[in-house]
C-alpha cells in the first residue's frame, strides 16, 4: 500500500494550520507555521508538511497557505495530491480561494475530497445556517466537477470547543475513502523529485525535502539540479524521521547532499543527471477554466505553473488547420483564445520539466474572481524560434461585374488593384455571400484594370450581376 499525499486547502484563515496541528502525528518541514515568531497567529506563508498514519498507511499532510498572494505554492504542491481536505469557514461558506482550491481538487483528486465545515462554534443560528451552507457546498462541488456526495464534516477546532470525536470521525471517513485506493506510481522511469524546500544544516550539508514523483532513489546515486547544471551525490535519505536506503515514487524524502549552497536553489524539479532539458517554447493542448471571466488575446503574458515552478510566458493561440506541402501541421493564428485551440507558449526563462501538465493564470488579477484561465498539456517541445507554420486569414470582397453565359464564367471586379499579379491567385476559391452553395475559381486577369475572370461549374445559372463575392486567403507569417 503506497503512502498518500493529502492537500489541506481552504481560504485564508479558515483553520487549516489549526486543523493540521491537531490531526498530524509527525511534524516535518515548515509545519504549523514554525516561522511565526512571538507565538501570535500569523498567516501561513509556505507549504507545511506533516504526517499521520491511517489504516497502516502513511498520509503526508500538505498544509497550504490560504492567502491569495501565495497561490503559486499551492499550484506547485497540488500536482502531487492524491486527495484533499478542504476547510470552509462555516460563517462564510465558499470564498475566493476556496473556489480556486476546489478547481485544483477537480483536476487532481475529484473523487477524494473531504470537506470540513469549520468554526461552527462561531455560528449564531447554528442549525438553520449549517444546513443551508451544506446545500450550497454540494451545489458548488457539483459545479466544480468534484464528487457531489463527498463527505462534509462539521468541526470546531479552537481550544474551547474542540473534542477528539471530530478527529475520530475524520479518521473513519478517511479509512473508507482510502480503502483499496492505490493511485498509480511510476517507479520504472528515471527519478524525478518535486523539491519544496532546501536548507543547510551546519556541519552536515544541505537538505532537500520533497516528493518523489517518478522513479526510485538510493543512497550514493547522483541527482542533478538541472537549472544550475550541477550534480551531487546523495549522502543519506530520510522519510518521516526514519533513515532509508531507498525511496520511491509517491513518498516524501529528506535528501542530504554536501557542498551545495542552499540559497542557490528554490522550489523546482530535481532529476537524474541529463534527464531534464531546458524548455523555452512549447505547443500545448488547452482546456479553458469556465470560471475565468476575461477574454484572452494572443501575445498576452500569463503565469504558467508547470513542474513546481511558475514562470511568465507569452501565449499565442493557434488552431490546427491543414497540412503543409512538406507534411507539417499548419496553424491559423487566432486573435484571442477561442475553443477549440492550442497555445504556443514562449517562456521568459527556460523551465526544466518533464511534467506535461500546466496551469495558466493571471495571478496579478487579485480580487476579480477566478484567476486560473486555462489548463493544458504539453503536446510538443519546440526549439527556440521554432518552425511552427502559422498563418492568419485575410478576407477580400468584390462583386460580379458581368456574367459570361457561354462559358459559365463571370468577370468580377472590386477586389484587386490594376497591377495585381494574378498568378498568385489563380485557382483560388471565390465564394458567394448570397448563396453559400455556389463557388468558383479564379482563372486570371481580365484586362489591366484589376478585373478578373472566375469559372463557375455548378450553380452558374443562379448567379446575378452585382452580387458580392468573397476570397479567403491564408497569409503566412514571415518569422518561420
Ligand atoms: N473560534 C474558532 N476559531 C478557530 C477555529 N479554527 C481555527 N480558529 C482560529 O482561526 C485563526 C486562523 O487559523 P489558522 O489555522 O491559522 O488558519 P489557516 O487556514 O491556516 O490560515 P492561513 O494559513 O493563513 O490561510 C486562528 O486564530 C485559530 O485559532 C474554530 O473552529 N473556532
Ligand atoms: Mg495556515
Automatic annotation (TrEMBL):
| Organism listed in the record | Caenorhabditis angaria
Pfam families from the UniProt entry? eEFSec_4th (PF21131), euk_SelB_III (PF21208), GTP_EFTU (PF00009)
The GO biological-process annotations, alphabetized, read as: selenocysteine incorporation
Q: Which SUPFAM superfamilies match?
A: P-loop containing nucleoside triphosphate hydrolases, Translation proteins
InterPro entries annotated for this entry? Answer: eEFSec_C, eEFSec_III, EF-Tu_GTPase, P-loop_NTPase, Small_GTP-bd, T_Tr_GTP-bd_dom, Transl_B-barrel_sf
User: Molecular function terms in GO for this entry?
Assistant: GTP binding; GTPase activity; translation elongation factor activity
Domain Tr-type G spans what residues? 1-184
Instruction: Give the stretches traversing the membrane.
Output: none
Protein name per Swiss-Prot or TrEMBL: Tr-type G domain-containing protein
Kindly give the CDD domains that the UniProt entry links to this protein.
eSelB_III
Amino acid at each position: 500500500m503506497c503512502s498518500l499525499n493529502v492537500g489541506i486547502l481552504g481560504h485564508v484563515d479558515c483553520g487549516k494550520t489549526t486543523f493540521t496541528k491537531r490531526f498530524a502525528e509527525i511534524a516535518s518541514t515548515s509545519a504549523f507555521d514554525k516561522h511565526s515568531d512571538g507565538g501570535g497567529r500569523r498567516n501561513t506563508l509556505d507549504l507545511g508538511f506533516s504526517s499521520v498514519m491511517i489504516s497502516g498507511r502513511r498520509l503526508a499532510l500538505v498544509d497550504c497557505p490560504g492567502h491569495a498572494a501565495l497561490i503559486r505554492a499551492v499550484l506547485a504542491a497540488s500536482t502531487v495530491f492524491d486527495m484533499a481536505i478542504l476547510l470552509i469557514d462555516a460563517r462564510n461558506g465558499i470564498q475566493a480561494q476556496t473556489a480556486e482550491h476546489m478547481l485544483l481538487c477537480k483536476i487532481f483528486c475529484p473523487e477524494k475530497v473531504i470537506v470540513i465545515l469549520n468554526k461552527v462554534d462561531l455560528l449564531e443560528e447554528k442549525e438553520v445556517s449549517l444546513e443551508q451552507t451544506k446545500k450550497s457546498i454540494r451545489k458548488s462541488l457539483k459545479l466544480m466537477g468534484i464528487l457531489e456526495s463527498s463527505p462534509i464534516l462539521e468541526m470546531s477546532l479552537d481550544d474551547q470547543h474542540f473534542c477528539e470525536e471530530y478527529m475520530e470521525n475524520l479518521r473513519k471517513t478517511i479509512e473508507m475513502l482510502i480503502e483499496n485506493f492505490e493511485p498509480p506510481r511510476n517507479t520504472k522511469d528515471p527519478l524525478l523529485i518535486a523539491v519544496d524546500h532546501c536548507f543547510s544544516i551546519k556541519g552536515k550539508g544541505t537538505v532537500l525535502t520533497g516528493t518523489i514523483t517518478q522513479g526510485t532513489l538510493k543512497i550514493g546515486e547522483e541527482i542533478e539540479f538541472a537549472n544550475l547544471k550541477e550534480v551531487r551525490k546523495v549522502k543519506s535519505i530520510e522519510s518521516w524521521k526514519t533513515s532509508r536506503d531507498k525511496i520511491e515514487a509517491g513518498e516524501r524524502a529528506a535528501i542530504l547532499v554536501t557542498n551545495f549552497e542552499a540559497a542557490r536553489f528554490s522550489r523546482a524539479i530535481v532529476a537524474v543527471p541529463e534527464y531534464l532539458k531546458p524548455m523555452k517554447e512549447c505547443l500545448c493542448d488547452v482546456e479553458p477554466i469556465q470560471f475565468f471571466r476575461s477574454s484572452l488575446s494572443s501575445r498576452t503574458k500569463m503565469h504558467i505553473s508547470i513542474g513546481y515552478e511558475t514562470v511568465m510566458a507569452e501565449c499565442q493561440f493557434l488552431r490546427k488547420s491543414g497540412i503543409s506541402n512538406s507534411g507539417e501541421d499548419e496553424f491559423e493564428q487566432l486573435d484571442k483564445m477561442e475553443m477549440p485551440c492550442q497555445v504556443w507558449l514562449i517562456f521568459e526563462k527556460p523551465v526544466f520539466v518533464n511534467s506535461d501538465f500546466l496551469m495558466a493564470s493571471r495571478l496579478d488579477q487579485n480580487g476579480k474572481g477566478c484567476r486560473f484561465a486555462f489548463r493544458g498539456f504539453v503536446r510538443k517541445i519546440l526549439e527556440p524560434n521554432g518552425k511552427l507554420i502559422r498563418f492568419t486569414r485575410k478576407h477580400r470582397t468584390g462583386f460580379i461585374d458581368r456574367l459570361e453565359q457561354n462559358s459559365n464564367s463571370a468577370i468580377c471586379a472590386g477586389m484587386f488593384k490594376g497591377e495585381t499579379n494574378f498568378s498568385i491567385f489563380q485557382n483560388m476559391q471565390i465564394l458567394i455571400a448570397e448563396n453559400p452553395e455556389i463557388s468558383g475559381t479564379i482563372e486570371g486577369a481580365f484586362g489591366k484594370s484589376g478585373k478578373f475572370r472566375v469559372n463557375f461549374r455548378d450553380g452558374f445559372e443562379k448567379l446575378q450581376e452585382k452580387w458580392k463575392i468573397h476570397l479567403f486567403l491564408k497569409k503566412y507569417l514571415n518569422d518561420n
